[in-house]
Amino acid sequence: xxxxxxxxxxxxxxxxxxxxxxxxxxxxxxxxxxxxxxxxxxxxxxxxxxxxxxxxxxxxxxxxxxxxxxxxxxxxxxxxxxxxxxxxxxxxxxxxxxxxxxxxxxxxxxxxxxxxxxxxxxxxxxxxxxxxxxxxxxxxxxxxxxxxxxxxxxxxxxxxxxxxxxxxxxxxxxxxxxxxxxxxxxxxxxxxxxxxxxxxxxxxxxxxxxxxxxxxxxxxxxxxxxxxxxxxxxxxxxxxxxxxxxxxxxxxxxxxxxxxxxxxxxxxxxxxxxxxxxxxxxxxxxxxxxxxxxxxxxxxxxxxxxxxxxxxxxxxxxxxxxxxxxxxxxxxxxxxxxxxxxxxxxxxxxxxxxxxxxxxxxxxxxxxxxxxxxxxxxxxxxxx
Length: 384
Prior knowledge:
two-stranded antiparallel sheet, single chain
């Protein structure tokens, strides 16, 4: 019987070898052959287990991050926090895993890797209190300009805030509750220019960085000097460097990718006597196309990000994008973990995208903003 059993196993093994990749056997059949079925299951299970582990880690962090003492309103240069990517804004800021051409620089610079030739993006944001934000981004794949030895994608960005004319007032030292008004209106200068670089480290792992030169100027004001016992002029202008670093990892399960981005890392800065940090934030998320029709004309993409900001409660960003043909419908929501509610005044967001041929895309986003009404964003993007 033993010899017969051995012969049977040899026969089955020979049969499998002869049929090669075309043979199909279930696990029950393999058990009796003496073949190691784990050899067949490992390539399938590995990406699934990696994905499960990442989601367990994110889920485990969620209740911990939402508890305890939290500093609020301790960061400056908050214009860096405003979503400059229209597609991202429509999806509730769930954008760490989006590969969105030149506009990726404003969310996760690793997303620049998607650019095969040249990419350009220009957007405008009608922010609250009659403030406007304008953004430009351009990037080029270095392989297209004879720099294949370096490889990767190089990009440049500009973000500019138009705060309009403002009336300046100042405290009058020695007179409680008194202030005086400057005769002429003035404008706050706020902008950031940056250089970004991204490349594909492996087939599944993307990396990107974005260095920004940030400017904020409140003009020269009079401050009281304790040593001089008098008011003296003081310049309120800061020009720090800030760094964004991002990664995107494809798990091998469909197009599921796990992304992480660390934004606005910089040294502490100071205005006269007041020290503060930039709006540093860590964002971790998952993005996946959960449905695609056989023809590929219809698809549904879902994204979820966990954001840990320097100066506010942790929040979860949820976003959806449904595409049919060259048209896209988007929606998103931000939820604060600590306060167990929506994110301040910012509520639901929605938007649309329209591809004009294979090179040009128009995007629009609308966000409900409570007592401030609404925020609307527009952008145009080109890629080749």
